[in-house]
Every structure is written in structure tokens, then in C-alpha cells.
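[recover] target loaded
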């Protein structure tokens, strides 16, 4: 008996060392889920860390474990979508009740001042947004009254936020809001866009952080929203050089924090790699690959990942804007086996050559080819033709391709089939149709994305202005 009691005592002591007793109670009026989960954020995903079964419309999470300080999510039984966020900061015994979605205005909290402050803050912000929407509607009929109301509302909310986020009210929610808040721009700034980009991360890196503090940030929805908006909001239409510079600037701020660097790079690398529409994003991906992954600055990357990345980098860099286009020699619709009769992609008198990779079975290719034909035919008699179209039939069924060319009277240079000097898919990173590559007079690549035919001449004009 004494031995059993000793074992039990040691077990209790071990559990106590690992964590603390906790009890989180959620009561959601009208909620029918048989189970609910608690999820922990990491970027835009939730990892489920606890489960509670329904009992009279109430879900009680309890046990003994260590809870990291930070933001968590109450998740419905589908295990994917957050019902509501809540904080773990100090108190490990509290209850939260409200409507089915825990709408902030309906929530009542017991035993946790941090969550009380958070839901009050969200409810106040929501009410202010509704009031602002009403004032915008009022502006249509009474502009003076609406503007006065907007000014009063702005002043009231600024005062509220200053009071709510006062140091005496310090808690994890307001800390995260503050760390991920946008920078305050001085009134004297002239180039506001550049200044904002340059200072976007100031609040996040305004001092040293412990590993625990960075972990809290990386497991919060606030940091993901900030990161995602920077790359796919602020930088969405930026040129590749600007994006690469901003990536380098952020990486320098991160320094040797591998976990934080991985947090960012694991999110942006696949998006820059897979993008087929954004001009220059392939160059951004090549920069990530060559300057970070392939130089050993991303130690989490496996050998398999690096092998694939090295292969893709060597393939994609050949088709980047600025690279010299590789010369293609291909058979035309006669499909001659004699290489001496094949047509070169580079040897035309025109200033520009449009390499047009298309598939007669592709609906988008059909539409774009028809629009390109209208433009091309209109320039046939022009004194300065400017460009030739070298249209590569991206179709294994040669007879189908030839028939389509004949029926639609494509008067440009039509080539296709297997009689070709090099693998054009590898040479120009063509893995889908339609794909457009524009070569200048030196036959360097100046565009590697599909441009609508109506924008083609304007693009060439703008390119020539930039060269001057």
C-alpha cells in the first residue's frame, strides 16, 4: 500500500511540475456542436490542443497542463473555423458566455480581466465601425453634419484606445495589438508609400524579445495578418527589385532567429513559386532560393527540398525578365524532319518577337489567340510592324493543331510538334498554356507573363520610354 501511495504521490508531483490545473468554461446560447476544441494559431492554421464535449450547451475544458501565454481560438466541431478568440494570460479558471459566435457585444466574462477587456474593446470597435458606416450614408444628404460626426467619433475613439491601452491595463491582447500596429507617420513625410514600407516593422522590432515573446507573437492571428498584408497587400504590385530589397531588410531585422525566419519564409516561398500571373514574382522566388535556401541560411529545409529547389532555380532563372532568350528552331505546319528547314525564333527583322505558347483545346488560349490575331492582322500593312508572333502549338495532337491554325487563319509564324532543337518547356519555364514571352531587339526577355492583346502596344511603348 505504501508503495502504491508513493507512486501516486510521485505522479501528482510530476504533473504539477509539467503544468497547472485549469478550467475554461464556454456557454454559447443555441450552439449545437457535440464537441468543441481549443486551437492554437500558427500563421493561418490552427493546431487543436484541447477538446470538450457538450453538456447542457456548455463546454468545459479542464485538466493539468502548461498553457503558453497568448491568444487561442475556440473552434467548432468541424475543427477548422474559429468561433472566437480568447486570451490565456494569468488566470487559468474562467468562464465566457454569449451567443452562438461569442459576438463581442453579447459576451460576459467571469474570472479573467484580460478577456473582459478584450471583448469590451472589440465591442466598442465594432460599434464605432457601424456608427462610421451610418455617417457615410448621412454624408449623401447632410455633408456638414456627417463630417462633424466623423470628427467627434474619431476623437472619441482615439481617447478610448489611449485609455484602454494605458500601461496600467497591460495584458497580452493589447501587447499584441501594439506590437503589430502600423507605424505612426510624421506629418512632414513627402513620400508616404516608401516611408510606410521602410518603417512597417518598427513596432515589432523596437527592442529585444525573448524566445517566449517571439513564440507568443508567432502563435497569434495579429502577426500573421501583419505579415500577410505586407507581402500581398503593400507589395502586391511592387516590382521584383523592391520586393527582394524588402525581404532582405526584414531578414536582417530577424537576424539569427531561425524560428521567426521560417515563420515568414515557409509562408511566402510557395506563393512566389506558384504565382503564374504576377510579373516578376519568379525573380523573387529565385532570390529566396539562391540567397537564403541554397546558401544554407534556412537550416530547416531538408535535403530533398533543397535538391528540388536547386533544380527549379536552374530552370526558372533562364526565363527571368532580363535573361537572354534561348533560340528555338522548330518545324512549321509542314512538319519537316530536315533541321535546315526549321524556323528560328530569333531571326526576324522586327524589333520584338512574341513567343506565344498556346493549346487549341484551351478556352483561354482560344480567346487570347483570337484577340492577338485581330491586333496582328491590323498591323500587317503598317510601315513599322514592330513585332512578329512565333506561335508554338502546345499540343501533342499535331493534326488537331494544324487544323485549328488553318481554320482560324493565323497568319503569323506557326510552329509545333516534336521537331525542335531544345526542350522549350524547360528553356522558357512553360508548364501551362497560354504563356507569352516577349523578346526585345537583342532577344532578351522583357516580359514572361500573358498580356491582353489590347495592352500589348502600350506595354511596348512604356518599355521604350523606360529604355530612354
Amino acid at each position: 500500500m505504501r508503495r502504491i501511495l508513493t507512486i501516486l504521490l510521485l505522479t501528482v508531483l510530476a504533473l504539477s511540475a509539467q503544468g497547472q490545473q485549469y478550467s475554461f468554461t464556454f456557454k454559447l446560447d443555441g450552439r449545437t456542436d457535440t464537441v468543441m476544441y481549443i486551437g492554437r494559431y500558427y500563421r493561418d492554421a490552427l493546431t487543436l490542443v484541447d477538446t470538450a464535449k457538450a453538456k447542457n450547451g456548455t463546454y468545459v475544458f479542464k485538466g493539468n497542463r502548461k498553457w503558453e501565454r497568448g491568444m487561442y481560438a475556440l473552434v467548432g466541431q468541424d475543427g477548422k473555423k474559429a468561433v472566437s478568440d480568447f486570451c490565456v494570460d494569468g488566470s487559468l479558471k474562467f468562464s465566457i458566455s454569449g451567443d452562438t459566435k461569442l459576438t463581442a457585444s453579447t459576451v460576459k466574462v467571469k474570472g479573467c480581466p484580460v478577456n473582459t477587456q478584450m471583448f469590451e474593446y472589440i465591442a466598442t470597435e465594432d460599434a464605432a465601425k457601424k456608427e462610421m458606416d451610418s455617417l457615410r450614408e448621412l454624408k449623401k444628404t447632410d455633408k456638414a453634419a456627417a463630417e462633424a460626426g466623423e470628427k467627434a467619433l474619431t476623437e472619441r475613439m482615439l481617447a478610448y484606445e489611449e485609455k484602454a491601452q494605458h500601461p496600467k491595463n497591460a495584458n497580452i491582447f493589447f501587447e499584441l495589438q501594439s506590437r503589430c500596429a502600423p507605424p505612426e507617420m510624421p506629418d512632414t513625410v513627402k513620400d508616404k508609400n516608401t516611408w510606410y514600407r521602410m518603417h512597417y516593422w518598427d513596432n515589432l522590432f523596437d527592442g529585444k524579445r525573448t524566445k517566449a515573446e517571439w513564440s507568443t507573437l508567432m502563435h497569434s492571428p495579429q502577426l500573421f495578418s501583419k505579415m500577410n498584408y505586407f507581402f500581398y497587400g503593400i507589395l502586391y504590385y511592387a516590382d521584383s527589385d523592391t520586393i527582394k530589397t524588402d525581404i532582405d531588410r526584414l531578414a536582417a531585422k530577424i537576424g539569427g532567429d531561425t524560428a521567426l525566419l521560417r515563420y515568414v519564409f515557409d509562408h511566402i516561398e510557395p506563393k512566389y513559386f506558384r504565382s503564374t500571373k504576377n510579373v516578376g514574382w519568379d525573380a523573387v522566388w529565385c532570390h529566396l532560393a539562391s540567397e537564403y535556401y541554397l546558401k544554407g541560411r534556412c537550416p530547416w529545409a531538408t535535403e530533398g527540398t533543397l535538391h528540388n529547389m536547386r533544380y527549379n532555380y536552374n530552370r526558372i532563372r533562364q526565363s527571368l525578365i532580363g535573361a537572354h532568350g534561348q533560340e528555338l528552331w522548330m518545324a512549321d505546319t509542314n512538319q519537316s524532319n530536315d533541321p535546315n528547314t526549321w524556323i528560328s525564333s530569333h531571326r526576324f527583322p522586327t524589333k520584338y518577337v512574341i513567343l506565344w505558347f498556346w493549346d487549341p483545346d484551351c478556352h483561354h488560349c482560344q480567346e487570347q489567340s483570337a484577340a492577338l490575331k485581330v491586333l496582328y492582322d491590323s498591323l500587317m500593312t503598317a510601315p513599322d510592324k514592330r513585332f512578329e508572333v512565333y506561335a508554338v502549338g502546345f499540343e501533342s495532337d499535331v493534326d488537331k493543331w494544324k487544323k485549328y491554325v488553318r481554320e482560324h487563319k493565323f497568319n503569323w509564324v506557326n510552329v509545333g510538334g516534336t521537331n525542335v532543337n531544345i526542350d522549350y518547356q524547360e528553356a522558357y519555364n512553360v508548364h501551362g498554356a497560354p504563356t507569352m514571352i516577349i523578346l526585345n531587339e537583342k532577344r532578351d526577355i522583357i516580359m514572361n507573363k500573358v498580356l491582353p492583346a489590347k495592352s500589348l502596344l502600350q506595354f511596348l511603348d512604356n518599355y521604350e520610354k523606360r529604355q530612354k
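[recover] notes: The mean pLDDT is 91.
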